Amino acid sequence: MKIVSGQQEFEKVATAQWNTDTALDRAQNVLASYYADGTQLDVWLCSNDSTALGVAQAITSDYKGTNSPLITGQDGDEANLKNIVDGIQTMTVYKNVSNEAIVTLYLAQAILEGKTIDASLIDSFGVECAYDTESYETSAGNKCPSFLLVPDVITKDNLQDLVDIGLYTMDADGYLHPTN
Questions:
Q1: What is the CATH number of the domain that holds 36?
Q2: In which band, very low, low, confident or very high, does the pLDDT at 77 lie, cut at 50, 70 and 90?
Q3: pTM of this prediction?
Q4: Helices 78-85 and 49-62: crossing angle, nearest 10°?
Q5: For a 10 Å CB count at each end of the chain, is N or C smaller?
Q6: Is residue 147 classed as helix, strand or coil in its secondary structure?
Q7: How far is CA 23 from the centre of its chain?
Q8: What are residue 80's phi and psi, to 5 degrees?
């Protein structure tokens, strides 16, 4: 991967509070400094959908290249799903809050019943996930066993999946709206 700006340290590429306007300003600065001559930008990896909105706005208004860069996001926000329908954003990582609620409920029940919290609980969830005992630590440095749910990659090709599971409705234009 070639990073034309050379910016890859967390402190330079992170967007405080995932603020859309901050992401927009940074993207405009990067585009003006490194891509104003039409240098091709292939992809902009965004930490979440709020930052992807700012990046998408900057690319739409300020990018001089002839291609359409891929823009990633995470969260499945309604505005970003619209950008996916419109071909502005390429994908978003979606974490189904219903699945998170199911796992949380089962974990709370298991704790109240005095059960051992381990990988054996996964079968009762009915949700695809893994049990990880090594990757995460508490602020005190202790290992923090975690259940990791499998997120979905949402693209223009599978937007209907969000409708099928009952989390969104789709209007005649193909735009999604959260169900109430």
A1: 3.40.50.2300
A2: very high
A3: 0.87
A4: 40
A5: C
A6: strand
A7: 15
A8: -75, -35
Which tens digit of pLDDT belongs to each residue from 44-55? 999 999 999 999
Quick one: tokens of 57?
């706005």
The Cα–Cα gap between 66 and 40 comes to 7
Is 2 contained in some domain?
no
Residue 86 in tokens: 């419109």
How far apart CA 75 and CA 110 sit, in angstroms, is: 28
Can you read off the two tokens belonging to residue 49? 């959908």
Report the b/e string of 158-179 with b at 16+ CB within 10 A.
ebeebeeeebbeeeeeebbeee
| Distance (Å, whole) CA 99 – CA 127 | 6
Residues above pLDDT 70, as percent of the chain: 100
Q: How many domains does the chain have?
A: 2
